[in-house]
Amino acid sequence: MPPPAQSQRSPSPSQPSGKSEVSDLKFQLRQLAGSRAPGVDDSKRELFKKVISYMTIGIDVSSLFGEMVMCSATSDVVLKKMCYLYVGNYAKVNPDLALLTINFLQKDCRDEDPMIRGLALRSLSSLCVANLVEYLVGPLGSGLKDGNAYVRMVAVIGVLKLYQFSASTCIDADFPSILKHLMLNDSDTHVVANCLSALQEIWSAEASTSEEALREREALISKPIIYYLLNRIKEFSEWAQCLVLELVTKYAPSDSSEAFDIMNLLEDRLQHANGAVVLATSKVFLQLTLSITDVHHQVYERIKAPMLTLVSSGSPEQSYAVLSHLHLLVMRAPYIFSSDYKHFYCHYNEPSYVKRLKLEMLTAVANESNTYEIVTELCEYAANVDIPIARESIRAVGKIALQQYDVNAIVDRLLQFLEMEKDYVTAEALVLVKDLLRKYPQWSQDCIAVVGNISSKTVREPKAKAALIWMLGEYSQEMQDAPYVLENLVENWAEEHSAEVRLHLLTAVMKCFFKRPPETQNALGAALAAGVADFHQDVHDRALFYYRMLQHNVSVAERVVNPPKQAVSVFADTQSSEIKDRIFDEFNSLSVVYQKPSYMFTDREHRGTFEFSDELGNLSIGGEVSENVVSAQRVDENDNHLLLTTSEKEEASGSSNNGSAYVSPYDNSSASASAVASQTRTEPAISNPTATGHSSQSASLGIDDLLDLGLPAALPAPASPQLKLNAEVALDPSTFQQKWRQLPVSLSQEYSVSPRGVAALTAPQALIRHMQSHSIHCIASGGQSPSFKFFFFAQKMDSSSNYLVECIINTSSAFARITIKADDQSTSEVFSTLFQSALSKFGNP
């Protein structure tokens, strides 16, 4: 068979056809470097395009650096741009080659064409090479005085880049003062905006070490500067307007009349076509009137119309961002938006994330005057093809029912949901009916009549099944088949994978037993037996607890399991008011979109391992007196949000422990289960069993041991491991930082903090002193209530083995999250116990 014919297609100009391609380019560039022949610039363009395309796809063309620099001697702006792009890419990875660019870049900074001057200055300030900083100061100084606004604008950003790379050089050259002069006197608003942005960053960074910088930063929000910027705000670009408006939110007017003057000046910004400007202006209005309650509510009315317009006129992404801010306002003042509920109706072509937010807002604005219309609209969504939205709409109907006084029509709608032949609709409706009965017990007769027709076999979802079982136990007297339905569920115990359902089933059978003992006796015995043998810890413990209560006293057990119920007046809010206030303070930011304060998603631990050496550099460590240690370990209050995170308690799922079997002390699991089952079936489980036999004694012994009731002999507690720490340990910040990067995580746990500890933790210093008394020293700390973050270290006595600890404490949840890294991994558990012991003693007298 002959070989296949070779393709005649020519290679792509962006792909080298062989190893000599780069060498050919080098040869051609060298030939054109000194040529002044007509059309040479066009030839250079073609070669430059090839070089840039090779660089873009990852081919190393750094060997052409010299030839590219030589060919840059041209007045063609396009060639200059491509050359600057090439130089900027390879100068960072090859600092030695960057020296070749200094002469031609400095020359271009003096070019007659302002475009070339600006491009050259931008490229020069972007090199970021340590030994080239001295060559940047002169061109930057000249650029700040340039007659062209574009060059001045580039020079201002170049100053900021210089500060980020070499702060001392920037300060010594007195560039901040020049920027301030430009900000107040330059005629071009782009230059003014860039100066404002650069000065805010420079002075904020310098404020922690320089009182002069602190004064300058405070001067930015003084009345003359604020009024100067506001009077020119119409000249600024949209980005610059947002920058100025954000600065105005930090200004405190001297009286209410001054606040009104500022709002009158910014009134037309609410009609701006750009959503960012509208939101920034809204934030100014809200902040200025926080202390004037009546006017603050009027501001809600004023900004409502522009924001609703933005929702309906923008892209889905913009609509969601604006809706998120409207959602925040609606939650704070729902009555103001109650007449505009139709704006929150869902459109068929909207993304699900927009619909979900609108459903929450419809729930919030519902009141006596609009409930019927809103519930009718929500019921239409229940048949939506988007199942998650259908579920959310049913939940919204339930939430409205729980917050209204007249719920007749809503209850009828919910009961209609139960009759729909859709599993997910029935499941959501069951959960809502359960909550409805908890708040409105008077509706039990109507609800139970419908719920009684639902077969437990058709309900698959755990939460819905748990709700149905709860109703079977709570209203077993009204539901004639309740004992038999529960008995059938107990018989299929092994097939039920949800621990939540099994827990509800245990409680429901107990309740049913107290109301209808003869019919439920067998089911109760089987349920307790299955619960004792269950591999889930919570189910196992609850079954044993119920069994021991029945052994002790039936009337006591009934008072515990089935006490008289009181209607639930208010259901718990998932978000604290403090968190909501923090989100409101961060209006017009991602905090509103994420519905959480910024410190929850901008913590430095999410940007890499131990990335705050700037704080560590200013700390004094080691064997100093405690007063010095505490004061040295302060972190700038302005950086608290960057240092903090919130220790959010993880929700334990029902199947979290399914992988581990429970072994009761002194107890053979199968023997215990059979013993409890036999005892409970033969007697109504209301008196101590008298059955004999090894398995019966074993079960009783295991139960007694669990609850510590009459155990004949207790095993001695195992001796706790001993670990002594070096009280005089010293560790410098750089070593701590290096170890933190290198060592793996040995242990990560969550501890509860005692109420006394929570009360005592008003500032980081209190805990620092306490831990130091236990030979555990702090190297960095920060935060304010309710969130604090610490980095501790300790050293094993007579050893160089160190323990590094990150401790994040949230006083609102009373939990501490501990991450431990250790040189000696084998002793991490012991140190964790010691650390927890020291933490538990915090706040004790």
From TrEMBL:
Residues 1-17, 669-678 have a biased composition (Low complexity). Residues 679-697 have a biased composition (Polar residues). It is found in: Endomembrane system. One of its GO terms (cellular component) is endomembrane system. InterPro entries: AP_beta (IPR026739), AP_complex_bsu_1_2_4 (IPR016342), ARM-like (IPR011989), ARM-type_fold (IPR016024), B-adaptin_app_sub_C (IPR015151), Clathrin/coatomer_adapt-like_N (IPR002553), Coatomer/calthrin_app_sub_C (IPR009028), TBP_dom_sf (IPR012295). Its main location: membrane. Belongs to the adaptor complexes large subunit family. It comes from Hibiscus trionum (Flower of an hour). Keywords: Membrane, Protein transport, Transport. Adaptor protein complexes are heterotetramers composed of two large adaptins (beta-type subunit and alpha-type or delta-type or epsilon-type or gamma-type subunit), a medium adaptin (mu-type subunit) and a small adaptin (sigma-type subunit). SUPFAM superfamilies: ARM repeat, Subdomain of clathrin and coatomer appendage domain. It comes from the Eukaryota. GO terms for molecular function: clathrin binding. Residues 723-840 form the Beta-adaptin appendage C-terminal subdomain domain. Subunit of clathrin-associated adaptor protein complex that plays a role in protein sorting in the late-Golgi/trans-Golgi network (TGN) and/or endosomes. The AP complexes mediate both the recruitment of clathrin to membranes and the recognition of sorting signals within the cytosolic tails of transmembrane cargo molecules. PANTHER family: ADAPTOR COMPLEX SUBUNIT BETA FAMILY MEMBER (PTHR11134). Residues 1-23, 647-697 are annotated as: Disordered. The keyword Nuclease does not apply. This is Beta-adaptin-like protein. One of its GO terms (biological process) is vesicle-mediated transport.
